[in-house]
Design a protein that fits this description.
224 residues, mainly beta, 8-stranded antiparallel barrel, 3-stranded antiparallel beta sheet, 2 helices, 16 strands
């Protein structure tokens, strides 16, 4: 899943309630449109499966990747994180996280916390060339579940029964903890430890993106 870029409403239209609604919608859209626990150890007796997977299309999709620091709204910055591991020759397990910050640069001291989505899978449906690199058309499946959080600043990221509530400046921004089931066609391209998702504005006849979204790269920060 990839970030959905949304422009903020004009300043003249930014009334208090509208700003709150837009902030919540923008972050929710970014969570569900894009994206860490430690990598699981190889179970005993599974060495032969991993040996096969190492030669499989899924074998390159492993490790921990993170985006740059993105401005989501005034006073709100985010970093997408995804952790991947191959679980079959043509399937990848993906854990999506979104770190929330209140200052540009996304320094640890400015982090409110990190949201964690239900674990997804990528089915690698087919491969094609993008320049000299191999990209994969995928089907991303995420089950219905609950968005959890690791909280860094408890006074600015609070949990209620239904929501996570962020304090951004003077705004209280609730984010629904419920995550709906999702199934989407997308693209994955891995070039020299940089991961790209698909550009949703370039679908083919089967609704797979045809081009990578180059303006939101995710760099490998830990190998699998």
């Amino acid at each position: 899943m990839q970030l959905t870029r949304q422009a903020p409403p004009p300043a003249t239209a930014r009334k208090h309630t509208h700003t709150r609604s837009w902030l919540a919608c923008a972050v929710a859209a970014a969570l569900l449109a894009a994206p860490p626990a430690a990598m699981a150890r190889t179970p005993k007796g599974k060495a032969h499966a991993d040996a096969a997977a190492s030669k499989a299309p899924s074998s390159n999709y492993n490790g921990l990747f993170a985006s740059e620091c993105d401005m989501m709204a005034d006073g709100l910055y985010t970093q997408d994180i995804v952790e991947m591991r191959p679980i079959a020759p043509d399937r990848v397990e993906a854990k999506y996280h979104k770190a929330l910050y209140i200052q540009a640069g996304c320094a640890p001291s400015a982090r409110l916390g990190t949201l964690h989505l239900p674990v997804a899978t990528w089915q690698l449906d087919s491969a094609f060339k993008v320049g000299k690199s191999t990209a994969h058309r995928i089907t991303m499946v995420m089950p219905q579940g609950t968005i959890t959080a690791t909280v860094d600043q408890a006074n600015k990221l609070k949990e209620t029964e239904q929501s996570w509530v962020m304090t951004i400046g003077e705004e209280q921004v609730p984010l629904d903890k419920g995550s709906p089931a999702l199934q989407e066609k997308d693209l994955r391209l891995l070039e020299k430890n940089v991961l790209y998702f698909g550009d949703p504005g370039s679908p083919d006849a089967q609704n797979y993106p045809q081009e990578p979204l180059r303006n939101h790269p995710m760099k490998r920060i830990k190998a699998g």
